Amino acid sequence: MEYSIEKTSPTSVSLSVTYGADEVKKAFERAAKRIGKGMNLPGFRVGKIPVNVIKSRFASRVAADATEMLADDAMMDILKKEGIRPLSPSQYRGQPAEDGREFAFSSSFDVLPEVSLPDLESLSVVVPDPAPAEEALNAMLDQALRRLAVYEEVTGRKPQDNDLLIVDVRGTVDGRALPGMTADNFRLQLLPVKPGAKVPEMDPIVRALNVGEQGHGVMICPDNYPDPTLRGREVQLDVVLRRIQREVLPPLTDETAQKLGFKTFDDLKQEVWQQTFAAHMRQIQREGKHQLMEEQLAGQDFPLPESLVQRFYREHLRDAEHYLKKQHATEETIRETLEHMQEEAMEFARKKAKGHTFLLALAQRESISASWQEAEEAVRAMTKGTGQNYDDLRKTIWEAGVITAMQERMITDRALDRLYGAARKIMAESPVLKPFSEVKKQGGQA
Predict the structure, then answer these.
(1) What pLDDT shows up at residue 386?
(2) What is the predicted pLDDT for the residue at 445?
(3) Fold of 120-128+258-427
(4) So where are the chain's domains?
(5) How far is 97 from 343, CA to CA, in rounded Å?
(6) Is beta strand 424-427 parallel, antiparallel or unpaired with respect to 163-173?
């Protein structure tokens, strides 16, 4: 086998491969033997059909299998020898191989461009105090107590702070209902508005209603709404208040803690503290990783592999379509929204591809990898508790080529972990927090 490599752009490579006639003949022999293995053909014993008979009767199949073998073998050998890591499935160009004749083909695929990578030991990131705030601790405690909450029906008054409401809401622009802003039996809780904070658009509408009454108001379509042509526009809200409930949490006592599976209220508080701390640490890590990536990508300008850009572009539009379908949008609304999103989707895809390319380059330098076996374990984990059949999902993922993308994302996740893990953490100044030990239970100090 002879080959040549040409870098056709900073992000793409082309291979030209030529096999000699003897190598092609051997590939046809292998393909015919593989096809004949276990085959039952009248006049021959199972698995003992002569190769020449297989070649004659199944010529097109043998040629296709031999061509695939030759192309796959060449790609595996060359990529391993040259240390090339394709970012996309190769694009094969050539005619099918012919038995006993020289065979030539070419193949192209995307590769990583040159990327400026940091010295990991020089990195630093500012992080907040990891101790959870009192407000977060109390919110987590309420969440635990909510498992034993009772809900009392409220009549004869309008909604108040902390009430649970059931409403029908219809959001329209120019008389057209907006997916995601139209729902029946929508459940919401009225929370106290902190001084200086923005009042949710629905609050003044529902606070003026009695059960069964209808109210009207307006809101500004948010900046993250799927259809960019509707963002910033005035949305007409029509709301019907169906129900008011008051949530009654159980008292903070040892007895309540025991009903939740703890010996004492102090044990419950300890578990709440640990869960809140863990959640806060995950948030700190997410924000720290985002900060580091923004700093590393700022000012960097490198060519992006087109296969990555197109993949993320399709994924963004597919996610939007899935969301709209869940919101029961019409086919016409979905089509129009996706058309309006194309420019923004491409901008999103290019930004995501830039970060992805940076992390893949970092992973390559740091020898970070993920095996197909690990990707398959991730597929298996996806099926747990979902009722999905592992074998069916695995087949779908392999046939769609998604397993390679999953493996790639595992690599970028590990590269980001390496980036954040290596950075020096600088603690930001924070106010003194009230100890959670001061949370009182029924009848005295906790």
Answers:
(1) 66
(2) 42
(3) Trigger factor, domain 2 (1.10.3120)
(4) 2-110, 120-128+258-427, 150-248
(5) 43
(6) unpaired
